[in-house]
Amino acid sequence: MSYSEILARLRKERGHTQAAVADYLTKNSKKPYSIKNVSSWETGYAMPPVEPFLLLCELYGVRDINETFRGVQVEYRGMNRLNPLGISRAEEYIAMLAGIESLLSAVVADGMTGHKHRSNMELIAQGAANIVSPIFGGIPSTGAIARTATNIKNGGRTRPSYCCAAFSISLLSIDLS
Question: Does domain 3-69 fall into CATH 3.30.390.30?
Answer without folding.
Answer: no
